[in-house]
Every structure is written in structure tokens, then in C-alpha cells.
């Protein structure tokens, strides 16, 4: 008897999921979040998908802010963050901003599947050992009912065949809203907020989050991971604030 390899099994699972999605397109029609037209089983129709604000190709490889030549930006040269690289799919602009808010605050979970599909179109991270969703505080989890970073990271871990570290890091404080704070204030607000529960000696970690604004949360998380031995920390974010 031939036993399928893990790669063959993963391929079969992907084929099965695509088949289920195709059936859902016919049985469960869905309107496009952006324009309201019929989008089959998708959250966004093909026309609106083509118009979503994509992250510029020329961007700082560390923080993902646009740069004229795609080289490291001045801020990352003068004050390097603890993380080593960042990739983003979209710019955090209309209508992506409204879509992210609808997912986080109005439980539009179909958008999580759509966003995860967009992230999957990026090439798999070379050399990665595990995927870590940005943790949220337990109180925020109770209020919201889910962690949007977990919803984005779970399909990636499955497709890329990487462990999903959901409980490796805890967020110990439900920090006040970061909106309107300077980067320095955000960093002070977040200092010591993460606790890592295990060793990461020599590991290459990919952190998944929905939006990167100043990068303060990702920076503090990367510092925590590196204190526990992580050799490299890279960010994969859905949207980067311009």
C-alpha cells in the first residue's frame, strides 16, 4: 500500500478546500463587501479586488514603508527595530481600512478568509520555523470572541506546513488604544507587555498581524522573542499604514 507523503496530503487538502469553495459559490451567494454586487462565495468581487490599494513594490525591506529605491529607510538605519523584515499586501487605505474594521469590530469573519487568501499569494517564507499570530489580551479576546491575527495565520500555517504558535506568547496587559500616540509614547505604552513561555533558540519566527502603523507592537514583540533566543523575526502584515 502506498502511503501519501505529507506534501501529497497537503496538496489533496488544498484541492478539497478549493472544491468546497467552488460549491459554496453556487449554493451560498455573497455580495461584494465593497460594491454590493454578487460575488459568489467571495467577500470581494474580482473587479473590486483588482482596485484594492496594494503595497508599493518599492519599500523598505525592514519596516515596509515606501522608499524611492526600495532600500532601507532612514529611520530603520538610524534606529533599527528589533524585527528583521516586514512584508505587507495592502496599503491601509480605503476600502481596506473599512474591511479590516468590519472584521475586527463587526465580526465579518468572511473577510478573514478573504484576507488569508490574499496573504497566501505571497511566496512561503524561506527558512521559517513557525508562525506566530500577534497576541491580544484575554479581556480583548473575551469581548471580541476571536483574535483576527489567529484567523489570518491559521490558513497560512496549514498551507505552508508550519507550526502555528498560538500559546507561545501572552499579552499581559490590555493596553490603552494606541491611536493618536507618538511612536515613543506607543513604545512606552507597550514596554514589557509580552511574555514568552518557551525557548526559541536559533528559531526563525514569522509574526502575522492585520495592520502595521508605527510598528511599535511588532517591535516590542520581536524584542521579547529575541530575548528568548529567536535568531530572526519577520513580520507578515495584511496592511501597512502609509
Describe the 3D structure:
The protein is an alpha/beta fold. The chain has helices at 6-27, 46-51, 74-78, 96-106, 110-120, 138-144, 148-160, 183-190, 216-227; strands spanning 85-91, 130-133, 169-171, 194-196, 204-212, 232-240. It has one domain (54-240): 3-Layer(aba) Sandwich (Rossmann fold). It contains nine helices and six strands; from the N terminus they run H-H-H-E-H-H-E-H-H-E-H-E-E-H-E.
How is the secondary structure organized here?
Layout: H1 6-27, H2 46-51, H3 74-78, E1 85-91, H4 96-106, H5 110-120, E2 130-133, H6 138-144, H7 148-160, E3 169-171, H8 183-190, E4 194-196, E5 204-212, H9 216-227, E6 232-240
For the structure shown, list the relevant keywords.
4-stranded parallel beta sheet, single chain, Rossmann fold, 14% strand, 39% helix, two-stranded antiparallel sheet, 242 residues
**What would CATH call the architecture?**
3-Layer(aba) Sandwich
Number of domains: 1
Q: Helices and strands: which structural class? A: alpha/beta
Contiguous helical run count: 9
Q: Which strand order do you get reading across the main beta sheet?
A: 1-6-5-2
Radius of gyration: 18 Å
**What is the number of E strands?**
6
Low-confidence spans: 22-27
> Approximately how much beta-strand content do the residues carry?
5-15%
What's the helical proportion of residues? 25-40%
Q: What is the H/E order?
A: HHHEHHEHHEHEEHE
Largest sheet: 4 strands, parallel
Averaged pLDDT: 87
The fold-level CATH name is Rossmann fold
The dominant shape is globular
Distance from first to last alpha carbon = 55 Å
CATH top level label: Alpha Beta
Amino acid at each position: 500500500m502506498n502511503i501519501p507523503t505529507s506534501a501529497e496530503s497537503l496538496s489533496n487538502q488544498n484541492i478539497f478546500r478549493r472544491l468546497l469553495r467552488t460549491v459554496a459559490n453556487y449554493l451560498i451567494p455573497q455580495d461584494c463587501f465593497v460594491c454590493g454586487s454578487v460575488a459568489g462565495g467571495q467577500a470581494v468581487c474580482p473587479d473590486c479586488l483588482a482596485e484594492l490599494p496594494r503595497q508599493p513594490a518599492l519599500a523598505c525591506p525592514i519596516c515596509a514603508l515606501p522608499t524611492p529605491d526600495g532600500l532601507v529607510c532612514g529611520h530603520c538605519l538610524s534606529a533599527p527595530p528589533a524585527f528583521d523584515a516586514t512584508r505587507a499586501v495592502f496599503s491601509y487605505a480605503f476600502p481596506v481600512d473599512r474591511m479590516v474594521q468590519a472584521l475586527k469590530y463587526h465580526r465579518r469573519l468572511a473577510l478573514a478568509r478573504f484576507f488569508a487568501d490574499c496573504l497566501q499569494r505571497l511566496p512561503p517564507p524561506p527558512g521559517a520555523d513557525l508562525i506566530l499570530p500577534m497576541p491580544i489580551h484575554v479581556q480583548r479576546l473575551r469581548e471580541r470572541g476571536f483574535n483576527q491575527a489567529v484567523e489570518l495565520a491559521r490558513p497560512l500555517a496549514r498551507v505552508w506546513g508550519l507550526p502555528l504558535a498560538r500559546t507561545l506568547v501572552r499579552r499581559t496587559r490590555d493596553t490603552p488604544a494606541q491611536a493618536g500616540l507618538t511612536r515613543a509614547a506607543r513604545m512606552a505604552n507597550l514596554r514589557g507587555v509580552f511574555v514568552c513561555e518557551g525557548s526559541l533558540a536559533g528559531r526563525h519566527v514569522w509574526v502575522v498581524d492585520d495592520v502595521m502603523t508605527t510598528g511599535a507592537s511588532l517591535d516590542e514583540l520581536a524584542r521579547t522573542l529575541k530575548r528568548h533566543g529567536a535568531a530572526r523575526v519577520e513580520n507578515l502584515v495584511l496592511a501597512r499604514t502609509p
